[in-house]
Amino acid sequence: MSLKQLEVSSFEEIIYNKGEACLVIFSRKSCHVCQEVTDVLEDLVDQYEGKFGFYYVDVEEQKSLFQQFSLKGVPQILFFNEGEYQGKMAGSVEDDQIEEKIAEVLDN
């Protein structure tokens, strides 16, 4: 998996301290839709190298992060830039939808 896994401390560091432009997918290993969306994200990683970060949170291992954002169900993709929440996508999404949102986040 080319997405970097985040825990509470690394999440705080990357999202809030560094303020990296990125997305974080909240997923579960046993979720088939999560796996499909993760595959789509992994196909985009190289294209955005150095410009936009791709991370994931395993909701079974990091329940507190999942609860912190009051998320309901998985997969959920949250977008951040400069420590600010920029929106989310839920469920099955296509690569062009994700790329549109990334462009929007990078333009802010």
Automatic annotation (TrEMBL):
Residue ranges of domain Thioredoxin in the record: 1-107
InterPro entries associated with the record: Thioredoxin-like_sf, Thioredoxin_domain
Domain of life of the native organism: Bacteria
The keyword NAD is annotated on this UniProt entry: no
Keywords attached to this entry: Redox-active center
Any Pfam family the entry gives: Thioredoxin
Alphabetized Gene3D superfamilies for the sequence: Glutaredoxin
Keyword Lipid metabolism: no
Protein family according to the UniProt entry: Belongs to the thioredoxin family.
Protein's name according to its UniProt entry: Thioredoxin family protein
